[in-house]
Amino acid sequence: MLIETDRLLITEFSMDMAQAVQENSVDDDNRRFVPDEVWETLEETEETLEFLISQYGSFEGPLVFPVIIKENKDNIGYVQLCPIDDGNWEIGYHIAKRHTGKGYATEAVKAFLPIITEQAGISEVYGICLAENKASQAVMRKCGFAIIFSGPDRYQGADREIVKFIWRA
Known about the structure:
alpha+beta; 5-stranded antiparallel β-sheet
């Protein structure tokens, strides 16, 4: 996969990206909002990347793609489509904290959604985040997601206040 926007490239992971992926994963925002996507060691990151790379070409597992700044080739995060319950799919994304507030997540999600949903043959994608994650909610709104639920539910293995969105092609 190769998606190009004005500022970004969305492509496939390669093993030489492991160091950048590991560094991006341990920032404060990732620890706070998606702790299951924090990899403390390079070895742990490499194992995860091997798995993610193995998922390309299939729609059975998570489809995770790095987000890279075109100008300097800096790996700043990822965008993903993950299967959830009952044949549904969820969007996910993370931009390293040092690059937040610049519109990169919105740009990546807007470019990614129409292409990946067409490839997957789906027309709906859910977005779920913690109610306190105002930045993620703003990204989803800007990308055309609509709120369908707000309140307590299970998230990351605990009862938390969440907001659930849906996007339709």
